[in-house]
Amino acid sequence: MLIHVVMFKLKEPTADVLQRTRDVLMSMKGKIPELLDIQVGIDVLRSERSYDLVLTTTFESLEAMQAYQVHPIHQDVIEYIKTVNEQSIVVDYITE
């Protein structure tokens, strides 16, 4: 399995924007065949080091994640994220 983790620091992390962004990310659930699992969390500590949201997705393989990356639904989500995101970081790893 391949785990894809993205953390987002938003331009304006208000409660409304955080919830809307979480909802947009979660809207992919069940709509992209390669996407086996999706979790989205809103940071609760809000420390200076914190990012605002985390997206964790699971795929069968690197090829499945690459198919997800170009899927039209994911591309629509990316367009929304571009409007609210200030910075993001990514980690991709394989589990046994």
Pick out the low-confidence regions: none
Order of helices and strands: EHEEHHE
Shape: globular
CATH class reads Alpha Beta
Please state the CA-atom Rg, rounded to the nearest Å.
13 Å
Mean pLDDT: 97
- How many individual helices? 3
What percent of the residues sit in helical stretches (DSSP H or I)?
A: 25-40%
- Strand order of the biggest β-sheet: 2-3-1-4
Largest sheet properties: 4 strands, antiparallel
At CATH level 2, the architecture is 2-Layer Sandwich
Number of domains: 1
Share of β-strand residues: 25-35%
CATH topology: Alpha-Beta Plaits
Q: What distance separates the N and C termini?
A: 7 Å
Short description:
The chain is an alpha+beta fold and 96 residues long. It has three helices and four strands; from the N terminus they run βαββααβ.
Key terms:
alpha+beta; Alpha-Beta Plaits; 4-stranded antiparallel sheet; 4 strands; globular
